[in-house]
Amino acid sequence: METTLDKFGRIVIPKKIRDDFNLGAGMQILIETFTKIVSLTPSEYISTIKSMSELGLSGGITYDALIAKVAQKSKVERLLTININYFKRVWPEGKKAIIEP
Q1: Which of 5, 18, 28, 98 has its CA 20 to 30 A from that of 50?
Q2: pLDDT band at residue 40 under the 50/70/90 scheme
């Protein structure tokens, strides 16, 4: 759901959400951000795919390489995966950040 800022820079909470959560004037709410979009440039994407091809790697590990590239670009503290060996193979310098559940 999208909303707008009023002319004073305040967030306008849509009526449906106010009603759903019984929000009223003067109530305090906590706003947290949970997502951040990190995009690869075309050259980053192509160079990642090309490096996988040069290593003779194809299939799902290619997607792991792209995810690792985004993780590297966004300087993540942790990358959680069940394919820990694939990620260590495509992002060896990130091995301290790659963890299993």
Answers
A1: 98
A2: very high
Structure pTM? Answer: 0.64
Q: What is the pLDDT of residue 3?
A: 82
Percentage of residues of the chain with pLDDT beyond 70: 99
Please report, as a single letter, which amino acid is at residue 6: D
18 burial via Cβ count (<10 Å: 0-12, 13-18, 19+):
middle
Within 10 Å of residue 86's Cβ, how many Cβ atoms?
A: 21
Write out the chain in H/E/C secondary structure: CCCCECCCCCECCCHHHHHHCCCCCCCCCCCCCCCCCCCCCHHHHHHHHHHHHHCCCCCHHHHHHHHHHHHHHCCCCCEECCCHHHHHHHCHHHCCCEECC
pLDDT in tens, 85-101: 999 999 999 999 999 98
Amino acid identity of residue 12, one-letter, is: V
